[in-house]
Hints:
The protein has 404 residues and is mostly helical. It is built from 12 helices and 2 strands.
Amino acid sequence: MQSAVKHYYNINKILITKIGGWPTQNNFIKILLPTIITTVLFSQAFFEFVQLTRTWRSITQDCECLIVLLVLIIGGTKLFTIILSNKNIERLLSLIDYHWRIFTHSMEIQIMHDYAIRGRKITISYIFIIYTLMCFYLLIPVTPQLLNIIKPLNKSRPYKYLFDVDYGIDKEIYYYPILIYSYLTTVMNISILVVVDTSYMMFVQHACSLFAAIGHRLENITLDLNSKKNNQLINKDDLTDYIQYDKDDDIYHELVLVLWKHQLSIEYVCFLDSSFTMYSFKLIFLTIIITSFLGVQILSLLNHNKEEMIRYIAMCIGAFVHLFVLNYPGQRIIDYSTDIFHKAYNMLWYKMSRRSTQLLSILLHRCFVPCTLTAGKIYVLSMTNYASMVQACMSYFTAFSSFN
């Protein structure tokens, strides 16, 4: 597809192809893989819902089914975000490749290269952390069998299950098929989370590289002005005005390029925001509800089952990490787009020609309002609002606890 995308984002490409979301994949594969994944997730969600309707007593007693059901809904939401927004994903990838072709200055290329490599490291780190945590979670059902080998008792320890659901069959006789099915569901759900989150962070990382490259060009213009000041002190003949004019002309054309590239960067961020805004809104809402239920579950297990309580504490930490992953990229966009304003303001604008300062004023005016990523076009993703979401989780947790 695109040369820059293939070179720098090959890991993200491999991940997206595993769920059938890469734009250039075969259409049959793009239908087959999501269908298989959706079937597995939906079937587990169906069993959880049936279990919930059969045993409904109170929120505190049925938190586990609610939590698993909502987690599966989040997985489905992430999957359909990639599948249904396939044209938007293709457009974003095309824009990335286009940016690599027009940011041609050596330092711009170096900055974008550094940010792309950093994005690859973030992707690998995120994959490692999430799958490591998943492996520990998947060990929970087999701990009795492992303990029977390491430290046997007079009788076998009871079986443990990843999901406490009635599948309509004898759970002890079909223990291992049920366990494999539970593992398959969990791995698919976590894999979707990894694919979409890393893709989202990759797109945001590229936007940050664009703003960083533009900021560097602005700083270079300032350095050129300093060198011109020295030349003006030395040259006192008639050529001085001609030389100064040429340099002002160069600065003007450089600012025109900067404004054009800045506008392209803004358009990219706006399109990125429109592509993921409803996705972010749904996930924030569901994650807040899940975190509240997890708090209720932890409280109910506080004096009864410490082992299960630790499991839900780990899940709660994972939910807060997920909220962080949704909000932190938005904060980075705000920081990098605002940084353009400071770098433009710190230039030696009083040494420029009038038409150059007019261009600079346009840039300052546009940068005065930072670029943002939103959830549903009503909620700005930032670290300040992340703290507000944590407080909201605690409020909902208190409210749900009162329904006991």
